[in-house]
Amino acid sequence: MPGTDVVLYDPARVEREExxxxxxxxxxxxxxxxxxxxLEELLAAYFCATDSATPFKVKAILLGALAYxxxxxxxxxxxxxxxxxxxxAAVLAAAVQAVRANMTPAHWSRARAALRAEQAAAGGAxxxxxxxxxxxxxxRG
Length: 141
Hints:
Blueprint (H helix, E strand, L loop, with lengths): L10 H21 L7 H11 L6 H15 L15 H14 L5 H18 L10 H6 L3
Helix pairs in contact: 1-3, 2-3, 2-5, 3-4
């Protein structure tokens, strides 16, 4: 039927989301480093989404979740103690689960390296809020 085609992943929108994420991701991450319990997954998703070898559909899914994380306003304001990043974690977990097969060991390795660098720049460990590298690698297949 003419005019009823559904475009699930609009390339122009995905491109806008990628620019938005690239422009705002690191600032948001650094501002909330001590409050985000899913840092490794967040960073692995970022590296997968910005990898030129990642399939377009996977990029679209991850960039949508990352854009939600970066947005200044969302369903649960991020400044709410304990609950602020719950919605972000749920959106990211669903996206990662949907595309996990495309998240390579290199993405996870870059995520752990970036996490160590960000923790060092922030002044050390973050009260055990993140997975230790040896535990994280054992859960990543």
